[in-house]
Amino acid sequence: MEINETKKLENLEKIIGKYFNNPKSATKSEFYTAQIKINYYELGCVITNMIKMCILTIDNEGHIISSTNKKAVNVSLMLEMVLEMFPLNEFEMLGEINEIFIGDSHNSEEKR
């Protein structure tokens, strides 16, 4: 049993190293990248609230400039920001960790 746990930890270290030890390469561009240092729960709340704001804006036609609404909300820009904030690399890592730990538990159940 200890050998199996050791292999799991070794695989976990490899996955974590692949995602967290590689600094993102800095590329010169005409755009600035904002770095937000918050935990994943807070990031999820921010993304959820931005999506809710977009839904409310569209439902209330806040994205349309009219005689009463001089300052329209740019929903496309908000959704682009949400896409930039979405932590796909981390979700990929969590998927691989899930395969190691959940996949192994399914294999051990099948052997019983």
Describe the structure.
The chain is mainly α and 112 residues long. It has a domain at 38-104. The protein is built from four helices and no strands. It has helices at 2-20, 40-59, 75-85, 88-111. The mean pLDDT is 78.
Question: Can you give keywords for this protein?
Answer:
mainly alpha; elongated; 112 residues
Question: What's the SSE blueprint?
Answer:
Elements: H1 2-20, H2 40-59, H3 75-85, H4 88-111
Characterize this entry briefly.
The chain has 112 residues and is mainly α. Helices cover 66% and strands 0% of the residues. It has 4 helices and no strands.
End-to-end distance: 15 Å
**Largest sheet descriptor:** none
Give the proportion of residues in helices.
Answer: 55-70%
What's the helix-strand series?
HHHH
Structural class: mainly alpha
Report mean pLDDT, rounded to a whole number: 78
Low-confidence stretches: none
Measured by DSSP, the beta-strand proportion falls in under 5%
Shape: elongated
- Per DSSP E runs of 2 or more residues, the count of β-strands stands at 0
Number of H/I helices: 4
State Rg. Answer: 21 Å
